[in-house]
Write a structure and sequence with these properties.
The structure holds two protein chains of two kinds. In chain A, 22% of the residues lie in helices and 32% in strands. Chain A is α/β, with parallel strands linked by helices. Chain A folds into two domains: 92 residues, Translation factors (Elongation Factor Tu (Ef-tu), domain 3, Beta Barrel), CATH 2.40.30; 168 residues, Rossmann fold (3-Layer(aba) Sandwich). A seven-stranded mixed sheet of chain A has the order 10-9-8-7-11-12-15, with helices on both faces. In chain A, a hairpin with a 2-residue loop joins strand 1 and strand 2. The longest helix of chain A is centred in the C-terminal third of the chain and has 13 residues. The N terminus of chain A is likely disordered. Chain B has two domains: 225 residues, no CATH class; 124 residues, no CATH class. Helices cover 32% and strands 24% of the residues of chain B. Chain B contains 13 helices and 16 strands. In chain B, strands 3-2-8-9-10-11-1-12 form an eight-stranded mixed sheet, with helices on both faces. In chain B, strands 7-6-14-13 form a four-stranded antiparallel sheet, with no helix packed on it. A two-stranded antiparallel sheet of chain B has the order 4-5. In chain B, helix 5 links the parallel strand 9 and strand 10. In chain B, helix 1 crosses helix 6 and helix 9 packs across helix 11. Chain B is globular. At the A-B interface, strand 6 and strand 14 of A face strand 6, strand 7, strand 13, strand 14 and strand 15 of B.
Chain lengths: 282, 371
């Protein structure tokens, strides 16, 4: 892990919304800046880590950081308005205030990819934790081999950052495979299950790392396919989601067997979690 | 029984008030046993309180009654519903406060508890082991919990060797009792004529020195040893091993989980009385005037609906998966997290379960069949 600053796990830092983007009817991105300029300057995170965002008087939620780690002006969070806190966060506008604790957890093992191909598999809205990895790789393109981005959504309208996917698809050594269970007019990608696209992915299993996030069923199917193609399990990683309230391995809600997802994850090696993922209820 | 480095002394049977007075002189507030609503509870003793005497705690699955102790002892009750947990891991407390200024800016401040010097009278071996486990969780060097640490720092522990284990006790099989071997300032073993006392810390040594006590006799030391061995031998329940991690994790699809789910009410009593359960929920409590909001934590239970809640679905939607989470965390997950089981054999989850589910019985049923 890089040398990021560990903020106190107690009270949050005050932060201000500097930009808000509506990504889809229920999904929005908040760009935040810590009110304390020195704290903002010192803030570092690794792709795959998350923050706890606090809505005044309502509570906190864990949200992945989706911005580029080199971007020091603000911290990006893409959020789906679903519960009490996120529906409130959805109403915020630039200039509004929140609290922020973080970054927390273990991010993606970026050092392991060096020189190798990177396969990114995401489903549904699970793409936020890997978007910062894509930015990270594209800014340091010479260090990595092929980049394969595989994304599945239920409906064509669910795909966020559609122009970005189209732009990525035009880059050299970059392959973009997108599938929607239900298509729509002018949908340029596959209609059907995302698992049907795995066979098209071009990468060297002997020198590749795969990163997955999204619904656990989809990750299971993706893992089976990637392992079958010869990717060693030691080079397969996934980001897990669980109820998180403290973010520092204390409150107990996110436990997955002996692991605290907030502290030991959210990014895990496949071998660390596979035995428990096979049993519903952990 | 462990050989003590310090010579044992004898506190006369009427000497407990002198011990409490000495602790009071050192600035400690004394927490000790009292009878409340038919059970032994740990509460603050004021100077005039006499410790309860002549009581045993008759316990069984879903059963707790105080009955007479024919030998009129002070510590013949094995335990009550509370362990030491509520003293340090508060059932509910404020972690921090947010204030909103007229300009809309938020200000955050940590809220730390007042933490008086506390002396606990009557801690059992299982409770001391559980306290060590709570310490391992809340005082992790990388991320010390300031609230727990503040309460925990100023503590004096007077332990008691169990002479009369309850029918629910199984600390012998977890390796945590019935004889306190570590983690106390003073430990007492009750004999008819008095309490054989050992110091376990400098503070304990200094306190015993102020009481000017006679050395215990070899006969008294023998009696203490026999008492400890008899208490261990009297335990009727047991877990089948200290490390059940692999055995339990091989049985995640065992039909017993469905069977126990039919009986379990998912009330969470077991997690509330468990001396090692640490789960807690966090929530905000805004002030009525809207000018501030406190962020609180409150004990939570993995049996509750909200524990496994995740946007739009529940990781553990039924009692089967919740009971399995509790038991496999307690007896398996803890090994990965803390290097040992999370159960110290106190038996509280058995006695305080309204339908009398017996953890040792469930483990035995799971183990009876090969996976």
């Amino acid at each position: 892990m890089n040398t990021q600053m560990r903020f106190d796990a107690g009270a949050p830092h005050a932060a201000t919304v500097v930009a808000r983007t509506q990504e889809s009817p229920s999904i929005f991105t908040l760009r935040l800046r810590l009110d304390d300029a020195a704290a903002q300057e010192a803030y570092r995170f690794a792709p795959g880590q998350f923050n706890m965002l606090y809505l005044y008087g309502v509570g906190e939620v864990p949200i992945s950081i989706m911005s580029d780690p080199e971007d020091r002006d603000g911290i990006g969070h893409t959020i789906r308005a679903l519960g009490r806190v996120t529906q409130g966060l959805a109403k915020l506008r630039p200039g509004d205030r929140v609290g922020l604790r973080g970054p927390f957890g273990r991010g993606w093992p970026l050092q392991e990819i060096s020189g190798c191909d990177l396969v990114i598999v995401t489903g549904g809205l699970g793409c936020a934790p890997v978007v910062s990895v894509i930015h990270y790789v594209l800014r340091r393109r010479e260090r990595f081999g092929k980049l394969v981005i595989i994304q599945g959504v239920k409906h064509a309208d669910d795909l966020l950052w559609r122009e970005q996917y189209e732009a990525w698809a035009k880059l050299p050594h970059t392959q973009v495979l997108v599938a929607a269970n239900e298509g729509a007019a002018f949908w340029p990608w596959h209609v059907g299950r995302v698992t049907e696209l795995f066979g098209l992915a071009r990468f060297d299993p002997a020198c590749a790392v795969a990163m997955m996030c999204g619904p656990e069923g989809m990750m299971h199917a993706a893992a089976a396919n990637l392992l079958e193609r010869g990717l060693p399990a030691s080079r397969l990683f996934l980001s897990m989601e669980r109820n998180m309230q403290c973010a520092v391995g204390r409150c107990g809600h996110c436990q997955l067997g002996g692991a605290f997802v907030c502290r030991d994850g959210p990014v895990f090696n496949w071998g660390e979690v596979q035995p428990l993922l096979a049993h519903r209820g952990f | 029984m462990r050989a003590h480095a310090d010579p044992a002394v004898l506190l006369p049977i009427d000497g407990l008030p002198a011990l409490l007075a000495a602790l009071g002189r050192d600035g400690y507030r004394c927490i000790g046993p009292a009878v409340e609503k038919g059970a032994i509870v740990m509460r603050e003793l004021d100077g005039n309180d006499a410790l309860p005497r002549g009581l045993q705690a008759e316990q069984g699955p879903g059963h707790y009654r105080l009955v007479a102790d024919p030998h009129n002892r002070y510590f013949a009750w094995a335990n009550g519903p509370q362990a030491l947990k509520p003293l340090f891991f508060a059932p509910q407390e404020t972690l921090w406060r947010a204030g909103r200024g007229d300009d809309g800016a938020l200000r955050f401040e940590a809220v730390l508890p007042e933490a008086p010097k506390l002396a606990v009278i009557g801690a059992r071996a299982c409770d001391l082991a559980a306290l060590a486990l709570q310490d391992a969780h809340f005082l992790r060097p990388e991320r010390v919990d300031a609230h727990y640490a503040a309460r925990r720092a100023r503590l004096f522990l007077v332990a008691v060797q169990c002479a009369v284990p309850a029918a629910t006790c199984f600390c012998g099989s977890t390796g945590d009792g019935p004889v306190p071997t570590a983690g106390y300032d003073i430990t007492l073993a009750e004999l008819p004529e008095g309490f054989v006392a050992h110091a376990g810390s400098d503070a304990g040594r200094a306190l015993l020195a102020t009481l000017d006590l006679a050395p215990a006799t070899p006969r008294q030391l023998d009696a203490v040893q026999v008492q400890g061995e008899a208490a261990a031998a009297a335990q009727a329940r047991a877990l089948p091993g200290k490390d059940l991690h692999d055995a339990l994790m091989r049985r995640l699809d065992h039909p017993r989980w469905d069977e126990v789910a039919m009986r379990c009410l998912a009330c969470g009593n077991c997690t509330a009385v468990c001396p090692t359960c640490f789960c807690h929920a966090e929530f905000d409590q805004p002030a009525l005037d809207g000018a501030s909001s406190t962020h609180q934590r409150v004990w939570d239970s993995c049996f509750g609906e909200s524990h496994g809640h995740l946007h739009g679905f529940n990781v553990r939607p039924d009692i089967r998966t919740r009971y399995r989470q509790w038991l496999t965390h307690k007896l398996a997950g803890w090994h990965a997290q803390f290097g040992r089981s999370g159960c110290t054999g106190c038996g509280r989850c058995i006695a305080w379960c309204p339908v009398g589910i017996d953890l040792t019985g469930e483990v035995a049923a799971l183990m009876a069949e090969q996976p």
